[in-house]
Structures are given as C-alpha cells and as structure tokens.
Amino acid sequence: MLSRRLILHSPQSRSSFVCRACAAQSPLLRASHRPFTSSHNAQAKKIPKIAGRKRGATKAPIEDDDGFRVRKIVSETSEEASELGEGLRRMARAAKEGSREELREAARQEKHNSHVEGRRGSFKPVSLKEALLDKQHEPLHIEVLEPADLDFKAVDVEIPAVPRLSYGLDRVLFNPGVYRLQDSSSRVYNFDPYLEKIMPVQDFDFDALSEYKTSSRDEELLAMNRRLGTKFTGSTSSMSGILQHFHFLLSGSRKLNHSMLSKNFPSPSNTFSKVTTGPDAIFLRYKEGQYAIDADKSYDDPNIMSWLGHSMEKLLTTDREEFERYRRSSPEQAPKEDNSSRCYHYSTLGNILMRSQLDAHDPRLPGTGIFDLKTRAVVSIRMDHKEYETGSGYQIHHSRGEWESFEREFYDMTRATMLKYSLQVRMGRMNGIFVAYHNIERIFGFQYLSLPDLDEVLHGQTDTCLGDQEFKISIRLVDELLEKATAQFPETVRTS
Length: 496
Hints:
Layout: H1 20-23, H2 27-32, H3 38-45, E1 61-63, E2 69-71, H4 78-97, H5 100-113, H6 128-133, E3 153-154, E4 178-180, H7 219-228, E5 232-235, H8 236-250, H9 274-277, E6 282-287, E7 290-295, H10 304-316, H11 320-324, E8 344-349, E9 352-357, E10 360-361, E11 370-377, H12 379-383, H13 388-391, H14 406-416, H15 418-427, E12 432-438, E13 443-450, H16 451-458, H17 465-488
Parallel strand pairs: 5-7, 5-9, 11-12
Antiparallel strand pairs: 1-2, 3-8, 4-13, 6-7, 8-9, 10-11, 12-13
Helix pairs in contact: 4-5, 8-15, 8-17, 15-16
C-alpha cells in the first residue's frame, strides 16, 4: 500500500522574535510576537524606556545566555509605527479570512514598506507558518495503490522467429554458475574455440545491422499506441533509468544482498554505485495527441562496450559461417536484418505502452522462453573505456577473489547494472539474462541469471512476488508523473 502526501514548506517559516522591552510598547506587538526567554528579561529590565528616545538613538546589540545575538530596532517616528501596525493588522486580517494569496501579498507588502525612504528599521511581521496555524487545514488528498489492482497486460501481436543461441551455449541456460569457455587447468575448450577471439570493432560491418529506432521514431509503435488508446509509449532502454529511482523510493533504499559471494571476498559494499543512483532524465516528444518517451543521451557517447554489445549479440546467435559474412573484408555480402530486427514484446499498464526488443529464445525455459543477451566487459575496461587498449590485458583467471575473477565481475554488476537488467526483463516478460564476460579481445565465460537470481540480490528473496509488485507500482507512478507533467506543459515538445 502506498500513500502520497503533499507537504507545504514556506521560506517564511521561522518564527520572529523581538525584545520584551520593545514588545511592551505596543499591544499589537505583544499579541503578534513572542518575547525572549527569561535570560533576556534580566537584560530587558536594564534598558530604559524607549518612548522618550530621540530619533536615530540606538540599535545596540544584546547577547543572550545561549550565545544568540539579537538587535532591538526602534521605530523612529509615530508615522512609521502607525504604518507598521497597519501592515500587521492587514496580515492578521488576511490570515483570519483564510486567503493564502492575500496573506502572501500582505507579507510582501509589509516587506516593501519596511524599506520605505526614511525608515531605518522595522519589526518582523508574523511568519506565514504562524499565521497558517490559526487556519484549519483542508484534508490532504491521499490515494492508495494496490498492486493487485494494477493490470500489466501483454499486447497480442504476431512476432517473427526469435534467434536461438549457437555453439551449444544453450547448456548454460540450465545450470547455475559460470561456464568457462576454456578450462583453466586442462586447457580443454567447453565450447567452440572460435568464440574465444572477438572480432575487432573496426573489422565488423555495423552498417549491415538494422538501425535502432527510438520510441519517437518508431511509426509502428506510435500507430499501436493510437490503436490501443494509451497516451505514453517508450522502450525498455528509455524507461529503465527513471524506474530505478522508484525502486530506491519504494524499497526505502534497500541494501543489496551479497550472501552468494564467498566469505573471502573482501568487504563488499551493499549499496548501489554512484552512477546508478545519480539523476536520470527523459524526453517526452509529442505527436498527434500522444507522447513518446526517449532517453536523454546528451552526455552518452558511443564507446567500445556499446559497439561490441551489438556485434557480440550477433556472434552468440549465428553460426561461424554466417557471422564471418559481417566481416568488412568478407567477399560475401552480409545478410540483411529484416524480420529479426522487428522482434518485440509489447505490454501495457495504465496509459503506458512499453516496447521490448527480443534478443534470444529457448522453448525449454519457463514462461515465454525469452531472455536478454548482455556482454560484460572486465573491470579495467569499464573504469576507463576511453583508454581501453591499456586495460585490455586484464584477464579472468579465477572463479572467486577480489581481482581477475568472475566473482569480481558479478559483484560489480550487482551494484551497477543488475537493477536495470531486472526492470528490462520484467518489461519484456522475459525469463532472465545471458551474460558473456570479456575483455574486448577475448571471451572468458558465460553465465545465465534468471529473474529469481536477480531478485535474490535486489530484493533479498528468490520469490519474484515482491519485485513484481514494486514494478507495477513504479509504472503506475511514472504514469501519474507524466500525466501531471503534460497537464502543466501540454504539447510543448514535438518530433521532427
């Protein structure tokens, strides 16, 4: 159950104080200001009556027992005192009548009056917070969200055949832990040795791959959005960034569960990385009564890891002969991506239509049998991808340990990208993720992580119920957030 509250804060919320000796000169000031504590009373008695003081007489500082310095400010003419009293009466009248705008205007006017020509000082007006305490607040609007009432529905569309893993890699799907490409002791290859050496990015023909279409440029997605009557549409990559922050909110910044790490792994941190918890932004692009959600890529530049992500996904789902046709030096033309580039799952919740690209499929897996392909560069590459040649010599030799181990790469993944992976798996109605560990020159091993495996780290349990409920509430909150944003700024951004 989730409750939302609106809390008002005011910059004038601090109470105003005056000296007791000063407040004693006016009944209105006695009623609208609180005097100092007893520590001030003793000093106040030593102050002579101020009624007979001459113009411009004193503004001597007084220091109380707690070390606070205050200044008693004297109204210098009867005309100014009258003007001050009128300002306070105006504020009191506005507070009594219950008009918040009138009260704010009265406070602004009094602040202006305090700086009129010839006045050297003024008493502070009654604070806005104090004035509002006298007015009975209207009841807060509280809405309750029940995950059981939120319907995450699949859109029934016909999709072409989804690729399957090649080179016998499907064995990894049904066994826990990491599968090494080559056994470290016997040097025997568990899979085709062709997988070991990665084709350099400069040799791969990326032009042969279909162009990725953002949500605002996918006409088929926009047409489906109009047909279904939903208002917002986005892809898993454009939405997963902001959805991460709703996990932090709803879970109370739940700590990561690293119970699966070895006892000898030194001092693992149970918090997410700073990059993961940092701000995230999206664009809402308006077109014909609907809004497309695009990720903000203003500061994202293509790098070696993103390029290899595309080429290695093709490597893992094609045989050797077909993949070699993507080499720029190949005499054969690379096969065009037609049907495979349009493999998507579509799902809706509320006013949001979600698109998820399908990487691979195995009918023996539970549910839809769909899973995501992820390529994970070693820590030396990730920490400095611009100088990746320097870190390409880093290798994985051990199963466990702080460095040069699969355990280290898994640990970094839990803090940086696993939350995003789990959200993409849920949006795409997938079973899990297939991970290939590499150093941009060589592949070291593979691991399959099902959704329960991901939830064990993120939610502390293998039962996916908690993660499913949090996911549906997050989508619903994004829906409401976008509704408020578009109501405030309607049709402000258009696609070209």
